[in-house]
Structures are given as C-alpha cells and as structure tokens.
Amino acid sequence: MSNQYRNNHYVPVWYQKRFLSVGQKDNELYYLNFKPGQFIDPRGIAHPSKPIKKQGFNFCFAKKDLYTTQFQNVESTKIEQYFFGKIDRNGRNAVEYFTNFQHPSVDGKAFEDLMLFMSTQKLRTPKGLAWLSEQSKTASKNQILESMLKLRQLHCAIWTECVWQIADATQLNVKFIISDHPVTVYNRVCGPRSQWCREANDPDIWLNATHTIFPLSLNKILILTNLSWVRNPYQPERSLRPNAQPFRGAIFKFTEIQTLRHLTEQEVWDINYIIKRRAYQFIGAAKEAWLYPEKYVSTTQWNMFGDGYLLMPDPRPIHWGGEIMWGNNDGTGGAMDEYGRLPWDPDYNKETKNHSEFNSLDKFKGEFARLYGPYRRGRTFEIMTLDKERDDDKFHQYHLNLEKKRKKR
What we know:
Blueprint: E1 7-9, H1 13-17, E2 28-33, E3 38-40, E4 46-48, E5 52-56, E6 62-64, E7 69-71, E8 74-76, H2 78-99, H3 108-124, H4 126-136, H5 141-150, H6 156-160, E9 163-168, E10 178-179, E11 184-186, E12 211-215, E13 220-225, H7 227-231, E14 258-262, H8 265-278, E15 282-285, E16 324-327, E17 333-336, H9 350-354, H10 358-372, E18 381-382, E19 385-386, H11 393-408
Parallel strand pairs: 9-14
Antiparallel strand pairs: 1-6, 2-5, 2-15, 3-4, 7-8, 9-13, 10-15, 11-12, 12-13, 16-17, 18-19
C-alpha cells in the first residue's frame, strides 16, 4: 500500500500554521514533549532526549497509521483520505470565519462546519482515542475508530446551546499556545490531579461548570460556557446542566455571540496554563517562553483563575427565558426552549415557569458589575446594534443594587 495518507496528523497542519508569529520566515514552532524519553549514542550509552524541539509541521502532532484500519491483513487509509479530508477542508474555512467574526454576520454553514470539526477533533487525538477505548472497553483499533466515526457529533448540541465568546489577545506580547488535544475543557473544581482529569479523562461538557476553550489562532480564542452556569454560578459545578442528552436538535443564535473581550496578559497566561495541563504529551508555541505559563500562574489556584470567572462570559447581556417558536410554509410549526426541550417534554420551560434561574442571574449580574466595573467584558448584537461598551452610571448602579438586595434575602 502507498505511504500516502499514512502520516496522520491528529492536529491538522493548516491549524498549526495559525500559530506562527506575524512575519515569521520559517514554518516552525517550538514543541515541548512531556515524555521525551531517551536516545542511544553510537557507543550504546543512553541519554535523555531534549524535551523542546523547533521543527516543521510535518513532524508534529502526527503519528504513522493512527487512522489506518486493517481487516484480514488488508490495510485501508480511507478514514484519513475521505472522512478527515472533507471535515478538515470545511473546518479550515469555518475557523477562519469565526476568527474574524464581527456582528451582524451570519453564516450557518460555517457554524455547522465548525461544530463538526471541533467535535471530531476532540475525539481524533491520541487522548480522545484513549478515552474512546476506555468508554467502549476495547483495545481493538478498528472498533475504536468505528466509535469515533459514530460519535463525531457527540458534542454539537451541547456546544450549540452554550454562551459563545470570542476573546482577543491581539494587543498583547504573549499569545496562545496549542496542544495535542486542542479542544480543551476546564471545570474549576476538577483539578489536573482529580479523578475527572486522570489519564485520558476530561470533565464532561454537560457538567454545569465545564467550559470548552478552542484557540482559533495566535490571537483569538473561542470560549463556550453552559447557559445554566452563566445564569447560576452558585450551584454545584459537577451537577448536570438541564437536558444533558447530547444527540438531539438545538438552535444557535448568532446575535448572542459575545465579542470584543480584550484579554489581559495574565488571563492569557492562565488560559495557556489550562491548555498545557490538559494536554496529553505535547504543546507548541511560536516562542519558547510561552511553553512555560506556570512561571506566571499560581499553580495551586486551579479553581480561582480570574476570581473563579476567568472563562465566564459577561452575564449582563444574558436574558432569563429563551423559548423559540417558528412556523413553516406548510402551516406547521414548532417550539423549543433554551435547553433544547420540546413542548411535550415534562420539563419544557421549567426554569422560566419556576423562576429558578431568575434570582441567581440577577445576583450574578450584580457580582460581575462589582468585580469588573461598568465596562462590558463581551458585547452581543441586540435590536440591530452592538450592546454598549460601558453601562451608564445609573444602569451600573442598578446591577450593583441587585447583588445587595440578594445578599439581604
């Protein structure tokens, strides 16, 4: 069989190139190997290999025959050639679109392509495949790859219903790094040594406080947060979000994407530290110094990055409720609540009916205003215009009073 399609990049080359510095002449990044191993010199003496190498993309985040299947001694590269080929092509355009996203742009295909790319990307890495092996209780490579193909949309519905934020590091001297598991999840009570994070495990994305982070480029990062967590960050972090069933329909609102959050250098170091600690074996960066975010981070404060709200979108544009109704040309119609439940579901509109998230959302808006001031940390598109960059004094004081009132109760 030809060697074509056998050097399998589990992090696409086009994606790695997005993390080159502006004006960089060579197509190389610095790569850190957590388990560099040893090499044997001509005298037969073992020496520790260097953990850091600067090298080209063809050699990095790749493994020979990672996706090659075998049946009765016949090998096949169809997964790499046909399945990943299309997902990567579409994903490349989608990542570019959201990297440069500005309201009021709407591109449904780009959204669908990004969701499928990210969901598949989370499963296709050595860490993702190891997780699938554990979940399916099999070491059979063919069965693991079959599970990957079947479960490629595992994360799409949950992410669709998240609050989306695109954060920016353009004006900073430190930029984002990448890892061998670039779709990274973080839950503030699931530290790197917890049972939720051991070996190939990650906190499930349907746990309330689990954020998903995905660097789009050197300067931009996509942060996805469960709506239930934004509305009530005082509930148990490992409880299930409403309607945690992953394989179902969901509705996405482009107007509610939060943009124009400009990160501080400390926030980028914190995010890079999370990416590094959730990597499997390798990380990469345009500058060697960026490979060591732990030099700038309190490594014992996993649950307190950014006062515990490092990855949290601004709650002030978030509304209570969210039922969506529609009609079709043939006279039929439908409805769905903000957690993807349909009208015949006994929990349909549950949170709206019982006001369970109303008080906690008001309280959090007040706490956020006190912590971060009147300037919004993310801006959405409402009534055909962007939210105000800064709340006026009266509105800011209103939010502060919300927290005071809730504290008295």
